[in-house]
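Input.
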Amino acid sequence: MALERMKAIRCPRCKSEKVLLGEGRALSEDRADRAEYFQGEKEPDLTSRKYWWLKFGEKGNSSKFLFSMLSETPEIRPAAPSDASDFRRCVLLLDLIPEWRDKLEACMAKAPDPWPELAKNWNSLEHALRKESPDLDFFKDQPTSFNGMLQIVIGSKKQ
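Output.
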């Protein structure tokens, strides 16, 4: 009976059967949601995009911490991505606010470990994730190699 109820779960927003912890939106779905919200606005300003993420963006503890550091309001308890899903949510944030990529390494150098190492290796980590899952669609793709790479970067500061 419980299994049948679990199989019947649908997203309250889109009624999809694709339900994960968080929303599990693919990159293309996230971009489509933003485009609909901004109604064709060519380049929404930073404040509007930050508001969108706070209200609608897919969040986890690590992406909330990244947001707080990059928006220079570090009031969130430190948390770092520990798996592909956590990292994916951070990538979605930086896709929304790409200008933060320029200050990622410098800003996160002040954060607790393993953030300085993650920020230093961000581009190669993101490239590896997108190689396994180009649209960040974890319903379709299983980024197994990426998780190993992430653990190596996180563990490198412990040695």
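The mean pLDDT is 85.
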